[in-house]
Design brief:
12 helices; four-stranded antiparallel β-sheet; eight-stranded mixed β-sheet; Aminopeptidase; homotetramer; 2 domains; Alpha-Beta Plaits; alpha/beta; globular
């Protein structure tokens, strides 16, 4: 099984695709799931909440990508190819029991993969064929574990009880897709929820149990719209978008202070104006806020809105703020459940570490909070893995043995909770 | 007469008083005018337009100054001592003719006069007795010419025709008083209007005829009101007035560009906060705009308001903008009248220069525009004078011979226009 | 004894004096210590390190204060009255043993005390007689405990072993005095060091043992020196200190981000310019940095210096940065010692809380780090006290029973460590 | 001749090319001049001063453009195709006389021409074939006049005296090419110099004689180089180029004030950062300064350098400032010569206007100043032309009758000065 799992991971590594354009990826996951005999597979618009989709590319961009290749499928791929990517599969054992949810992210990053001879995917021929995307964060591994977990559940359906919902989420990078899918009507009423990430600073063999330290974060795209004018001849007729953007940038970066823990603001990108001698009529910022908690992050988002509005007023401009991505922190971590699973995994021989600190944002927290709120139990793992280069690096590569470890962690949880889960 | 004129100037130099606190100055002018036999002398609230008074000090400040000395007068000084300073005197020859208006400013500057032995007022004992004020811009000279012009008119009343209105205006510095007095009901329907300034870069003996280049200007006081908080322990509870003031200052200083001529903005004073470790709850700016024309200045005032409002919104603050002073440029200079007067003065032996450039602001322009609009003819002179130090310098001192020159210019204008004025 | 202790505290409350001007306070402490028969009393320049004195007022200010009263003493007070305040007393039992150090801060705050009838010091007649200072942080209590601890040591000298150094430190507020005194040659080689603060959020009766959470902090005074010019007539000749100060303020406030814990910058005060129509030739900022550790605070100080230098260069100005105060965090807390003392105090019936979080800065940390580095054991207590109003409030007043509690804590520590201290 | 002149203009309109890539344009001008029998034709590196070339595109860009077409020529085009564009032709009558210089700019703008049916070049089939360039400022007209002036000089060589230098300058837009060519050794010692621009607000038939109001201007490209870091996880390791660029932009825009006349600064373009969650490691500004005179412009360039340097220091960055273009104002306009030529043209029936105000920048001023300094006489004309849309507009089109007018103006000047020029 380990060999097949690695083959599957390498297949998906080759067809890496970025957020909302995981066309080949989604279609192949469906094919793989259908080949396992799973009938209840949902995809397309119906698994999304249109109003909660963040950071979707323009229709032009989606269309251009779609037209760059041919895909055959014996099911309707229309909505997928319109950008409604991702898959939710449900396996019902038809026996009373708990509902288990698993979330696997499937998107790659918009970077070009390393072609160095020391980079294993290149050397061994499974480098990304897409020059505009690379699995540099291990999501190819995550989704492959998901497919093999589905396989194992199907093979053991007789022995198992309850229902199993496998969520293949698009657009985790940039926190684009989690909110939309987490609000999907296809994933309500989960008793036990599981998420996981490969790598994240833990070595191969180590399993982080009950990850903490997820930062609440909001990604904002800001546009200032002014009025162009010849800067020398008619300066008073211009409405200067560059000045507003610079004023906003400087003042935004002063906001990151809060008594309730870590607070961050970054304006990573600024673009304004087209001609040296014209007063700029348009400028944009790409920014993010982060906070140790919702409260801190919400404060920063609110204050950012005030700074942006004020900057627009300073130069008599129109402005627009769009959420390009978002993730919460974990509201109420279920430490009791973490302890229970940690004991289980130790018993089963795993080398665990409790509650490792994520120090970053993940929209898996939408699922975790939702499940916890409804009285379920949610947990996130880190599947330690020796890395060749850091996450998001063009030479990122993880230890493929991690795939089996991860799969086994999920199996053991299912087996244990089938037996010991609270009714 | 020259000796008396100099004596009078020195008397007023000694009792220098700043804007809206020209108490001794106003009362002594009234006494002087009454001693000439002038009956129609107006002062106090009735010569002002309450809503158009700019830059008035607090009542506390006025009261404190008033209580620092005793003043005897056989007329009612109550309103003068409440800050309604200035005098308007009217001399009616009771013969048909034109109405002549003359404006003299009477305020000193809030600086301490030089006590250097090389400074003539100190050496000869007529230095300002008021440590908080000094006549460093020649207004002591202006008002003394006014008193002696009144004397000459009274002495020549039989020979003259028409009416003579002599306006002793408070608060020219900072453009505080001109607007209020110019709208006074006591100075309507002037046919010929005259203003003048001593010095201004011209040497003794030179007379500038028909001054141009007055800059429209507005003086604004800006206050930002936020909320204090411990900067380290509870930063999110503060509303930072210092940051808003700094943002406003920087962005205000970017505005001074206009295709229609000179545009200037200066934030000369910034004050914010009281404690190093507290988020500042209040900050203020003292600023000014200047423009080659009303249009330019009005544009700058409007844009300043937007920048200030935007800065307040950036930090979620309240704010207030108060006009502390204002003066227009000349709307329509009457060059034909300037030419006529220039010819006259040349004929009478004066060494004239036509239309010198003022390069500064003067609220005498309120009077000039008003008279011109109503079809009268208004003119402003510069009475050249060798200066010991520049205007506003603590060692400023002008050549006292200038007083006679100035007085004679006015006399010749009256005599000429009594004869040649259009009916 | 409790009554005398309260009397003493009230005496010092009445003569409240701010940093570096604790003239009456210092002289009275010396008198009190001499009256106990202590011979080894040091004061004046020799107990300071001139180069490490922060935030000293101008000589003019010190002189003016000194001249406002007469003080008689039968010892040389000259240097004290020049601003070298504070006292170090040493009591040597002449028996082998440990060296104990105690630090008491003696300065008041530069605020005017409440004259409300509900304010006990006013009602009972021991309100500060100095309109420019008030003991609003309990240092009157600290120093009174110090005097009575000296009294007890002298009375029990026969029973005790080792040496006792009592440090009466000037200028704790603003972190002015700790560095200078901590480097004094008079306080080397301490085996056991004790500091304490009254109040700080703990109720009467509670004793905080082994305070943590001291923030490293630096207080900076920044001056920009430019060149004045008429803002409208000759703008190019000005070097605009207001613009540099605003640029510095905005950019400084963007710096407070660090991965190693809390980071803060606040520019609490900005003052620039004198005349609305002049380009400002001078502006100043009063700012502070704070960090969870030296590393964070040092990073902020370094980055602040770069922003300030850059802002000066932007406007072609000279600038100056002066340290107005400074305190470190605790480098290596001696938790073992805290546990030992906590056990002791519990045994003796005190209601203790371990390692309370200070959440502020205190220059007592200079002493703590120094003692710890040399192998000694240092500890800081919080003597809980019900407060009428918060620290630094004009109606601050603590529960005087706290004085006895504090004194007893120190006595028990001495008795215990005389017996059990490591040799 | 008028028809041929129009044909020529349309030919060059079709092959529009931007600065330093006027490959087809340069080569065709050379061919045209050779076909007239002119022997002394210089081009390539030798007509330039390498160190004074501004705004040259990268070698990659030049190479890519060169490879996009084939050009045959029976002379060496190597250096032209490396970006050393432009031509200088000299016609020597071999008779004693004056040296006449004429400058024609040959570059197009980097914009795409309008394909509207109302746009004559599109309708009549001579629209630019280069999607990346369009003659939207009339330089196609200028250079065509130049070629036909050469033709006329060659045809009338026997009648004429002296030497004729025709300068076909690359890169006038952006002020790229004037400085380099004006310093060329091929154009020294000119007695009479002529430049001209079509349109510029004057109607067809009108000839502006002795253009004034050229603004001194400098175009600067600024790069800030910092250090990228994860904005949330390791903020202290970043060196934030976006913050420096915003600080520079805001502070630069405050500088445009000068007592000696119009002063402008515009930062038309800002680009910084690549990833929302990374501290930006690079940012750039495209800016320009303008001044009524060299003095004003030089002041702004100097002050800009200080603001940029200071901003880099604020964020501990490296920076680079490159001159991307530059032009002076006219140092000493030769009004006597303007009057002389104006009289001549009036006599010859032209409808002239004296000394029209250009209100923009032109690097022809380098030539004008140089000739004036050496005692020659330089003049610039505006050849009025009814425009379909303003300069730099994608639908710009001038009245082709202007070509003959312009050519005739030059001819009359030559004939007159052959006869009347000072020896």
């Amino acid at each position: 099984m380990e060999k097949d799992l690695i083959e599957t991971r390498r297949f998906y590594h080759k067809i890496a695709e970025p957020a909302w354009m995981e066309f080949k990826t989604t279609i192949n996951i469906i094919k793989d799931l259908r080949s396992l005999g799973i009938e209840n597979i949902s995809y397309g618009r119906k698994i999304h909440r249109e109003d909660l989709i963040f950071g979707r590319p323009s229709n032009e961009k989606i269309k251009a990508y779609k037209e760059s290749f041919d895909l055959e499928a014996d099911f309707d791929t229309k909505e997928i190819l319109e950008g409604y990517t991702g898959v939710i599969a449900e396996i019902d054992t038809q026996k009373p029991g708990k509902t288990f949810g698993f979330r696997f992210d499937i998107d790659a990053m918009p970077i070009r993969e390393s072609q160095s001879v020391t980079h294993k995917p290149f050397k061994e021929g499974f480098i990304s064929e897409n020059p505009f995307a690379m699995h540099a964060c291990g999501h190819d591994g995550h989704l492959s574990i998901g497919i093999f977990l589905a396989k194992w559940i199907m093979e053991n359906k007789e022995k198992l009880t309850g229902k199993y919902i496998l969520i293949f989420q698009p657009g985790e990078e940039g926190l684009h897709g989690g909110k939309s899918i987490s609000e999907s009507k296809y994933i309500q009423d989960i008793d036990y929820f599981f998420g996981a990430h490969i790598g994240m600073g833990l070595p191969s063999g180590k399993v982080g149990v009950g990850t903490t330290g997820f930062l609440a974060s909001t990604k904002l795209d800001v546009i200032f719209r002014g009025h162009a004018s010849h800067a020398s001849a008619l300066p008073e007729e211009g409405k200067n978008a560059n000045l507003a953007a610079a004023s906003a940038l400087l003042n935004l970066e002063t906001l990151a202070k809060h008594s309730k823990g870590m607070a961050r603001i970054n304006v990573g990108v600024i673009r304004g104006g087209t001609a040296r001698n014209a007063i700029s009529d348009e400028a944009m910022l790409k920014m993010e806020t982060r906070g140790a908690s919702h409260e801190v992050n919400d404060f920063l988002v609110k204050r950012s809105g005030e700074v942006i509005k004020g900057s627009a007023i300073q130069y008599d401009l129109d402005y627009e703020i769009k959420i390009a991505g978002q993730a919460p922190s974990i509201d109420q971590a279920n430490y009791k459940f973490y302890d229970e699973i940690d004991s289980l995994l130790k018993t089963k021989g795993f080398d665990t570490i409790k509650s490792p600190d994520f120090k970053a944002s993940e929209d898996v927290c939408y699922f975790i909070n939702k499940v916890n709120e409804k009285g379920g139990s949610a947990i996130h793992f880190i599947f330690g893995s020796d890395l060749k280069a850091g996450h998001h690096n063009t030479a990122f590569d993880f230890d493929e043995k991690t795939l089996t470890t991860g799969l086994n962690v999920f199996k053991e949880c299912i087996l244990y909770l089938n037996k010991n889960g609270k009714s």
